[in-house]
Structure formats: structure tokens, C-alpha cells
């Protein structure tokens, strides 16, 4: 089926591989891309061959040499132009994103602007990669410490934020002076291609960003084993992250891994309940619950549990499920049938363990097979798959607690450590709980924590490294120490 979408700039739709500044569409096997709202085929995308992968590395190495001839200020100007082009094309980029991913158009536009903010931020950080001079231990010596680009990088990005997750990786990489080969998720390749198209228009050298498509396992193995790739960055499941980590060992690559989460959200008895309810709704139902930082386990103090659940039920009833192109839609479809099956199984497991289904719990068949209703479940035990697994669906699971020590123990009782949230107005409690939670990111009295100027990432089984802030560009640099004898 031909892709049917009206854009101001139709050239943003690219269905080929991008290698060495050229779009490759011919003589390649193809795979289909579907609109999750309608289950209709959008288009077919070219699949990279082994020769394509090798060509991508060769062109990236040459482009990186050329890119390093640019001054930091020159690189900054090009990255800033890239940012400006994203902003100018934001409406089109949002339409592409909604078409292939399903999220509401307003939310898609928000993702585009969020992704753009990384190009704006790292355009400035490109000029701030400072070295050091260290006092020498011997007379007539000078000691310098310099920071260099780590080398050609590879990125594997997910389908839930197909624009922003690539932007968070590409912007600091090119600002640091690196070239990148990106492999976007097969469900959402068009957003990555559109972002790369604008990079070429901004003036990056051919080959500085290559975008390839195809079989994840084959491409992942290639990235891990090829010694020319010096850094691998991945956002996705912990299971795949572990596999990549193990398989990169033989080539000693630098890595950054943003993996799974099991975020707790705690509402203490002294919280502002209305603020807490608003924070829960924003944290849980963004992208229909398909985010790694969604609140996964909601802990409410038993003294206010009934009140909070009642208010949550009222707010959930207001959420409009539908096609992302409908202006009134607040929740779109899940990404595919596998996601629906997973969501259903989590609900069934909870109900067989005495949980109370308050609202939702199934698909809305009138809308389509992938439209899972916003769901609220009151849980009486933590011995549930809902408690242990990453939900990745619009299912809000509530648990009770009586003491700070009890809920901190429950919150930390997971191998994951990405995001966490809590609501309280007691300053002593705020400091204590923030220190006690074993997570890389903590939101206090807010359900939204992501921004371009802060370090995004987790601890424990949620990954390595950080994206955003000045820490993000450090992931693409390596340290060189120079000891000069002046005798």
C-alpha cells in the first residue's frame, strides 16, 4: 500500500538506507511498516546487506576525518541549523511519527520539540569540550589532558520515541566529533530517516550519519563484532542490553545502555493529593504507558488510598482513547499485537490473585485490535507479574503501605533502577526518601523529569551511562594525557 500522508515537505518521507549521503532504495529486500491505529501497511523499507554495513563503516570513518577538520564553532553552527530545520518541519515530523507509531499528534509534536532541544543544547556543548593543564612532577615538563572523539559510533533505537531517542544519541555524538551509524526500530523507521534527511540539509558531511534498516540480531551482532565501531549506544530491553554488553567485550567498545525500568511512584499521607493524582496520570499514561520511565508500581499510603483511587478513577474516565490524528485523542494504540497480549496477560494474572479491576482491562474492539483501555487495578499483594515486570501498557496498578521504611523497601525490591517518583510536603522526608531510593532519576512532586540539560539514565539493571546534560557528551569522548619534556 502506498504511503498516504499529506506533508508540507514530502521529501521527509524516505524509505531507503542512508549511506554516504545517498538514499539507497533499489535491489534490496524489503520489510513492511504498519500504522498501528489501522493495521494498514504504510510502506516498505529497504533491508541492508552485509556489503551495505561495511560501506556504512567506511563512509563513516572518512566523514569523521572530514568532520574533525571543522572547528568546534563550525560544528556548532551546523548542529544549530539542524535544530532550526527540525523546528521548521516539526508539524510534518509529528505527522510521520503518529502515522508509524500511533501516539496522539499533540504528543508527537511534543516529542519532536523535545528531540530538537538536544540539538540546540549540544550545538552549544560542542564549543565547551575543555582540556586541562596539570602541574608537572618534574621541572621542564608540561602535562596536558585532552578529550578526543571516541570514534565511529553505532546506535540502536526503540520504537516508542523514534525521533527523540535518536536525537538524544546523534546530537552529542556529532557535537563531540564522532560519526554515527544508526539502526532504528523496524516498526518506526520513517522518523529516523526524516531526522537524517534534515541533517544532510543542515550541512553535515556525507557519511557522518548513516541510517540502516534490517534484522536486529544480524545488525546488532555486526555492530558488536566490528572493531571499527568504538562506541555502541542502545535504548531498549535489559535482556537485549545484556546481550550487547557481553558481545561487545571482545572489541572493548565504550557503551551506554538505557534499559528497562520498574518505576515506583509513592504518595505519602502528607502529599497534596490533587498534585499527586495529576502526576500519576501524566507519568503513567504518556504514550499509552509505553515508556521506560512510566510509573509502574503506584504505592499509596493506606490512610488516603481510597481517596486517591477514587480521584484516579475520575481522571482516567476522562482520557480519550483513539486514532492519534483525532484532535481529541489522548491515548493511542499499543504498538502491535504482541504488546496487547502482554497487557492482557498482566491483567489476568492480577485478577487471579485477588486484585480489583476498577476500570478498563481490555481492548476497545470498536476502535481496533491494538487499542487497550486505560486501566486501574487495586492490588492486595505484590506477588504479581504487574509488580515484577515492566508493564509498557496503560495499566495503573495501585498498592498500599503504612510506613516509610516499608515503602522504601518495596520500591527498591527490583533489579531495575531507572526512574522513581514520590509525593510529599515534608522536607525532612523528601531528603531522606530521595537518598534512600536506588534509582538514577527521582521526581519529587512531579511525574515529568526528562529534559535536554539533565543526565538521563539508570543504575543496576537499568543500564550504563547518561544522555543529556554535559554528562551526555562525555559518553562520546576519550581522555588523552600528554606529558611533554621541554629539555
Description:
By secondary structure, this protein is an alpha/beta fold. The protein has helices at 50-67, 72-88, 90-101, 105-125, 164-176, 189-202, 216-225, 238-247, 273-285, 305-318, 337-351, 385-388, 404-412, 427-436, 469-474; strands spanning 17-19, 22-24, 30-35, 40-46, 132-134, 141-149, 152-156, 180-183, 209-211, 229-235, 254-258, 263-267, 295-301, 356-359, 375-378, 395-401, 416-417, 419-423, 441-444, 459-460, 463-464, 477-485. The chain folds into two domains: 10-259 and 462-482, 3-Layer(aba) Sandwich (Aldehyde Dehydrogenase, Chain A, domain 1), CATH 3.40.605.10; 264-444, Aldehyde Dehydrogenase, Chain A, domain 2. It is built from 15 helices and 22 strands. The strands form six sheets. Strands 14-15-16-13-12-18-19 form a seven-stranded mixed β-sheet, with helices on both faces. The protein has a six-stranded mixed β-sheet with strand order 9-8-7-10-11-21, with helices on both faces. It has a three-stranded antiparallel β-sheet with strand order 5-6-22, with no helix packed on it. The mean pLDDT is 97. Keywords: Oxidoreductase.
What is the H level of CATH, i.e. the homologous superfamily of the largest domain? Aldehyde Dehydrogenase, Chain A, domain 1
Q: Write the CATH fold name of the largest domain.
A: Aldehyde Dehydrogenase, Chain A, domain 1
- The structural class is alpha/beta
Q: Mind telling me which CATH architecture of the largest domain this is? A: 3-Layer(aba) Sandwich
Number of helices: 15
State which percent range the strand residues make up: 15-25%
**Spatial order of the strands forming the largest sheet:** 14-15-16-13-12-18-19
Proportion of helical residues: 25-40%
Mean pLDDT: 97
| Tally of discrete structural domains | 2
Q: Termini separation (Å)? A: 73 Å
Detail the poorly predicted runs: none
Amino acid at each position: 500500500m502506498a504511503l498516504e500522508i499529506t506533508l508540507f515537505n514530502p521529501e521527509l518521507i524516505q524509505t531507503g538506507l542512508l549511506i554516504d549521503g545517498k538514499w539507497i532504495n533499489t535491489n534490496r529486500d524489503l520489510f513492511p511498516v504498519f500504522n498501528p491505529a489501522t493495521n494498514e501497511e504504510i510502506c516498505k523499507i529497504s533491508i541492508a546487506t552485509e556489503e551495505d554495513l561495511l560501506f556504512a563503516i567506511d563512509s563513516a570513518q572518512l566523514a569523521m576525518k572530514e568532520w574533525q577538520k571543522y572547528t568546534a564553532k563550525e560544528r556548532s553552527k551546523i548542529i544549530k541549523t539542524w535544530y532550526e530545520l527540525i523546528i521548521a518541519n516539526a508539524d510534518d515530523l509529528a505527522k510521520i511519527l503518529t502515522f508509524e507509531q500511533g501516539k496522539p499528534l499533540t504528543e508527537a509534536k511534543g516529542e519532536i520539540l523535545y528531540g530538537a532541544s538536544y540539538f540546540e543544547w549540544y550545538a552549544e556543548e560542542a564549543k565547551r569540550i575543555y582540556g586541562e593543564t596539570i602541574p608537572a612532577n618534574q621541572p621542564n615538563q608540561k602535562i596536558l589532558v585532552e578529550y578526543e572523539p571516541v570514534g565511529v559510533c553505532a546506535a540502536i533505537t526503540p520504537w516508542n520515541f523514534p525521533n527523540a531517542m535518536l536525537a538524544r544519541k546523534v546530537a552529542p555524538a556529532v557535537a563531540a566529533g564522532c560519526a554515527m551509524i544508526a539502526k532504528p526500530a523496524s516498526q518506526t523507521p520513517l522518523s529516523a530517516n526524516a531526522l537524517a534527511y534534515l541533517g544532510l540539509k543542515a550541512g553535515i558531511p556525507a557519511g557522518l550519519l548513516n541510517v540502516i534498516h534490517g534484522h536486529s540480531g544480524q545488525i546488532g551482532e555486526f555492530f558488536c563484532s566490528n572493531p571499527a565501531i568504538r562506541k555502541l549506544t542502545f535504548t531498549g530491553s535489559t535482556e537485549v542490553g545484556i546481550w550487547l554488553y557481553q558481545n561487545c567485550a571482545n572489541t572493548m567498545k565504550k557503551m551506554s545502555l538505557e534499559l528497562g525500568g520498574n518505576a515506583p511512584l509513592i504518595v505519602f499521607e502528607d502529599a497534596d493529593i490533587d498534585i499527586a493524582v495529576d502526576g500519576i496520570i501524566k507519568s503513567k499514561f504518556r504514550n499509552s504507558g509505553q515508556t521506560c520511565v512510566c510509573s509502574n508500581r503506584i504505592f499509596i499510603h493506606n490512610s488516603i488510598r481510597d481517596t486517591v483511587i477514587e480521584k484516579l478513577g475520575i481522571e482516567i474516565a476522562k482520557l480519550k482513547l483513539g486514532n492519534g490524528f483525532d484532535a481529541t485523542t489522548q491515548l493511542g494504540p499499543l504498538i502491535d499485537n504482541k504488546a496487547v497480549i502482554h497487557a492482557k496477560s498482566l491483567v489476568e494474572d492480577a485478577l487471579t490473585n485477588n486484585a480489583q479491576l476498577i476500570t478498563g482491562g481490555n481492548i476497545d474492539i470498536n476502535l481496533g485490535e491494538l487499542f487497550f483501555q486505560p486501566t486501574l487495578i487495586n492490588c492486595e499483594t505484590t506477588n504479581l507479574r504487574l509488580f515484577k515486570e515492566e508493564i509498557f501498557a496503560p495499566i495503573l496498578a495501585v498498592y498500599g503501605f503504612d510506613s516509610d521504611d516499608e515503602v522504601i523497601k518495596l520500591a527498591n525490591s527490583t533489579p531495575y533502577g531507572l526512574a522513581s517518583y514520590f509525593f510529599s510536603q515534608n522536607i525532612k522526608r523528601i531528603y531522606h526518601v530521595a537518598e534512600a531510593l536506588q534509582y538514577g532519576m527521582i521526581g519529587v512532586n512531579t511525574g515529568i523529569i526528562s529534559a535536554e540539560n539533565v543526565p538521563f539514565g539508570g543504575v543496576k539493571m537499568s543500564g550504563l551511562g547518561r544522555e543529556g546534560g554535559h554528562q551526555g557528551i562525555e559518553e562520546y569522548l576519550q581522555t588523552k594525557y600528554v606529558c611533554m619534556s621541554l629539555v
